[in-house]
Amino acid sequence: MADTFWTKPPIPIAHRGGAGKLNPNRHRRENTLGVFKAAVKLGYDYLELDVTNTADSQVIVLHVTADRVEAKFHKRSAPDAQKLQQYTYSELKKRLGREIPTLEEVLKALPKTKFLIDAKTDEVVKPLAEVIKKTKSKNRVYLNSFFIHRVIKLQALLGEDLNCGVIISRHPRIYNWHTRALYRGDYFGKGFSAITISRRFLTKRNAALIHQHNLKVMVWRASSPRQINRVIKMGADGIITDDPETLLRVLKEK
Questions:
Q1: CATH number (domain holding residue 185)
Q2: Across the 254 residues of the chain, what is the mean pLDDT of every consecutive 10-residue run?
Q3: DSSP characters for 117-165?
Q4: Residues 47, 35: contact at Cβ < 8 Å?
Q5: What pLDDT is recorded for position 66?
Q6: Are 14 and 47 in contact (CB under 8 A)?
Q7: Domain assignment of residue 173, given as a range
Q8: 68-71-75 Cα angle (round to 5)
Q9: Domain count, the chain
């Protein structure tokens, strides 16, 4: 299935729809149907998004880590996933005061688009699998997480041919743990198709190691021409960007 999912590299991928340059309203527009449709109209076949779940078991498209959207919860950094799960879907939309699409809505609205989906909680894994089955979207999704046990559970729920992989964190402590796991070979031989790594930690050495095991290198996030050219030189197969227009321009120039 992975063989038909990935196209010729480098693959342009819009991060949360590519709303990074839409400040000061970035966090009201990213991970929304509007920005997803804008990226598709611009020419993107691949979109990256984040999912978590609500108290009433809705799988919603929303980032849950340190972003200004969380200021609605009277904190400098955004609500964590556990806090989000305390609210129903309608309560959460009211509290945040912004559009929060469900994953099912996004998959149905963009039937020809491919998605890289980050499972943000343990609790979202099962309902995420149910949405993928219900919408018959397995052939156009790549499911990943910072935590390998979530990916293994998704494989168990959706089948060993699931297109999936692991994200290597840029948080110093977690990154060190991920890196040791990478060089031990913990992520190889598990049916994954790709590894996602921060551009800050991408090297020719770890890109070569990932390629050696026939996996794709997805790089998150490269947005300026300098960043984009560097990750291509390092061996990126996919580039996740906050600036979809610049990425397409640089790739066209190449």
A1: 3.20.20.190
A2: 89 91 64 93 96 94 61 49 82 85 98 97 95 98 95 97 92 76 93 95 94 97 96 98 95 92
A3: EEE-SSTTHHHHHHHHHHHT-GGGEEEEESSHHHHHHHHHHH-TT--EE
A4: no
A5: 46
A6: yes
A7: 2-253
A8: 115
A9: 1
